[in-house]
Batch of 4 targets.
Target 1
Amino acid sequence: MSPRGGRSRRVSPFVVLSDPVRHYIVELLCQGAASSGDIATMVYDNMGKGWSSVSHHLGVLKESGFTRVLEDGPTRYHFLADDWLDLVDQAVDEWRTTWRDGQPVRELGWVQPVHRARVRSGYAREPEPPASPAPVRRGRPGAGRLNLSGRGQGRSHWPRDADGGGSFD
């Protein structure tokens, strides 16, 4: 466990912000610090998530270095760390570097030959061809239609009044 306010592990800012609840909490904290109870109330009112879920997400934000916590008696105030946007910028810069480094390969069009070589060596598989859609039969209504009831699709084998509209006398 890390000391309060410290970072114990490196979590991608994209992973942190990918969850809608954490994204919403960060938006709330952009306006200023808020207590755990106020955050939980706002998240519940807007997203329907309970206290345990909010507590988990606040912990993830703290562990990832996005937020800091100030304890005032029994109340905990959460606020965004001064460098939280630097974490996002750093992650974007890493992607920019990877993108820039891959430019020559993309220009030469080596992606497909490399994939084919990986398939030949057994490291990758060819994608499965898309399943062909069921044939559409023309003709008079009801004639020659596919019977889908054996596959769990189509009409039910229950009588019409089995949905509660009839009686079981």
Target 2
Amino acid sequence: MARRQRVEAEPAYVLHARPWRETSLLLEVLTLEHGRLALVAKGARRPGSQLRSVLLTFQPLVLGWSGAGEVRTLTRADWAGGVPLPQGRALWCGYYLNELVLRLLAREDPHREVFLAYDAAVRALAAGEALAPVLRRFELAFLAALGYGLDWPHTVAGRYRFEPHRGLVPLMEGESAPGEVVLSAQTLEDLRAGCWSRPATLAEVRALTRRLIDHALDGQELQARRMLRELLE
């Protein structure tokens, strides 16, 4: 039998909400210490419910809940404020982040680094930062937390082909790799330094994260990615 849980105040974000029975909402949330959870917000759809204006996506919240089993009951929801809603293409990037977490992060699998990376990405999108670096930073941090991180070569030189089951494989001088994800030594150095000013680095890392995500999803496509393809490509 599942142990009954009571949490009083936990930093969280709402990833998705849908109607639940007549007056409630079923929430998927990402939390700092407890990972992704399903919570039912009882009465949240009633006219005049204070929860309606609080349980918004891309807003830092403090949540409380209680109960046992797969779906817990929301007992507290407070706005932790200060972040405007991302606009335009940044908003679609936020939907992409949410879908990525919903599809790849199992419920009740805590990863503080995922929450912190998500929080940083949402704030960067809201602040109007360049979209591509924001997405790549989050993807790399998220995938590393799930066990899809890169094993860095001891010395960096030349070019490397990425293979999902082998990692980075050095290419011989003059060797071609058509259709493969190839990273230059400069791209790897940029990643280590957190430098995103070089267009070639952004392009190569984008190809890398796409390959990793496709591998993790086992060929399934993200709906938000189709929208981003139209908006950003």
Target 3
Amino acid sequence: MNFLAHAYLSFYNPPLLVGNMIADFVKGKKSLNRFPEAIQAGIVLHRAIDEFTDTHPVTHQVRDMFRLHYGLCAALFADVIYDYFLANDSRIFNKHSLQTFAQYTYQTLHAYRQWWPDDFDRVFMYMETQNWLWNYRTESGLFRSMESLIRRFHLAQGIQPAMDDFHTHYEKLQGCYQRFFPALQSFVRNFHPLHA
């Protein structure tokens, strides 16, 4: 669900961005063959980003901060937590540049609509109309993303414990992002050096 990070780590390369954004809706290796090579590269990059993120020790620390209330489902929250701190990272975005980047991303995706998987079409409608990429910057946007995950996975705990955990561990979560994201950027630049 961390759409902002995947978009940003496409480094303004349009077909790479498209592949990176639709990857969760493309299943298996054989299904890659129906896409142009440059979009395939984005899908492969997305999967590499996910694996790097999911196995990184700092991500495990983020999950641990939500584990008391959500158990193994705490893993759901790490990606959107990273997007929140990325959207508020003054070294990368300010309010104006994030809005500009969000509009660039939506317009680029529209230009490649012929390559969208069917399931992405519905998700993109919400992404654009509700301006998800911009709204990751706000706590209300973060909590809406969390609530969507909670509904999707039928978690009986609801959103309140996640909000409480976020506020309780805010500084630790920010520190995790600050340690993790430069490592992720370095990984991506080395994984696709032509797009660095």
Target 4
Amino acid sequence: MRCKTALALLLAFSSIAQAKELAITFDDAPRSANGFFDGPTRAKTLLAELQRHKIAQVAFFSVSQKLDREGMQRLQAYSDAGHIIANHTHSHPDFNQLSLLEYTDNVDRADELLSDFPTFRKWFRYPYLREGDTQVKRDGMRAYLQENGYLNAYITLNNYDWYIETLFQEAIEKGLHVDMEKLKTFYIDVISAGVDYYDQLAVTHTGRSPKHILLLHEMDITALFVGDLADALRSKGWHIITPEQAYTDEIAGYRTQGVMKYNPGRVGEIARDKGQKSRLWHETLDEGYLRKRFKAEVLEEKESAEF
């Protein structure tokens, strides 16, 4: 009996230790919407998709310059539904192109405009994930975040979902027929491949699967398919957790000593610091690769020739 009990406890502990957990976050909200959906339709569809697929909470990293009347209403709808609103700067600048003061001023402006939302959190995500191309800028921004009570809202699961959206909208604009089921399958396959890759990269360099943060964007394909993506990930053993839970992982306190002009995300930082010099970005983070697959897997042969 004791042996059976010990074995059960060991299996339970092993299951917990190897638990695969991820939170879903959306950048660039409220992102421009003038293609397949308009803004209100995107928001309504996205909120319904999250609710229907039992995704309790996500985080919207918001570019405050987009807060015109419609953008404000869209962000308010997300907040009213209990989702987190967080800071993604005022105008989405590239830190590599600005001074530290210019950059912090941009973050301050967003803080002023976003802090009235009831679900606002002092979380900051760097546009393009670029955290400073010099040590002075990197350390200056780290000090700014600490002094202003901000969490560096890093990501661990990177992808180019925004380019899949570009391909989708381009096809719609050209009047091409997009098979939505094929698009869904393509989208899920590409995002899932990246999730698997970065999780294995984390296991390789940390010995475990951390609480992951998935980077997506507030876009039409997200509104259409994020629930199906969540279900597909669940079928592979993933548990969808809240961003607040995800940011309790111990890698939240990790700080690379390197300076990276282009940042692949927290797992990529760790891998590089452990000595890995290549494949910090998965193969799906390539525009040419995605366009080739989109033409072959989503469009009909005749339309593929026109794309």
